[in-house]
Fold this protein.
Amino acid sequence: MFMPTTTPQPDPLADIPADRRPSHIAMIMDGNGRWAQQQEQPRIVGHQNGATTVRRITEEAARLNIDQLTLYCLSSENWKRPADELDFLMQLLTQYLITERETLMENNIQLKIIGRRERIPVEVQAEMDRTLEMTAANTGSTLCLAINYGARGEIVDAFRKIGQQIESGSLKPSEITEDLISQNLYTAGMSDPDLLIRTAGERRISNYLLWQISYAEIWVTEKFWPDFSSEDLHEAIRNYSRRTRRFGGLVHAGRSNTHKAQPNDRD
């Protein structure tokens, strides 16, 4: 899947079979501001260094043939932050979308974006669309950015779409299933995350992919996002590979670690 542009490097996880690795990793990138404070720098410096980490981890995930990496870039609650910080974040996002196109194309990565477009400046939306269009035909890993995203809002939007189908007579309430709800979420067509990584030591979900991470394994590091390294990603994947995913059932000989949850599975 990954198309190297330099001399191939040895796989640091070569001892982990493919079926013991996560196919889809979701990440909550926390700690940019605290990292900057620790460095006695303005918060925007933390965000700048965080953007550098995004590139590093995206490239490494592609090199490891991770099918999808989903990053929590801007939550719907982040609009409560100071206006100057939000303006900088929009500038940084625009810059990222423009400057990283070459990296995405070189690494055969397809970009996807989830979240509500409202409140995002039109010039940022234009760069989003250009990058989405440019990478649409790429066949390697998928990088999904959650921008102006909130899981509760996503579920509300899904139920509104389903409600419209009921109102039009094309759907009966008795026909609503978990699969139908999934098909009406922003992530329709994507697999659910196998592994959720959160930096900066926080033990909470923060309104992120609430429906999709129902059976995800969770790994937390105390490191702030700007300090998160490829080696930390390797450690998280190794930790994941050692876990037994039962999905509410029993472990049987030969059952894969990456067995997907079934509708009746329960913890």
User: Anything to note?
Assistant: Confidence is low (pLDDT under 50) at residues 258-267. The CA atoms of residues 30 and 199 lie 5 Å apart. The chain is about 40% helix and 15% strand.
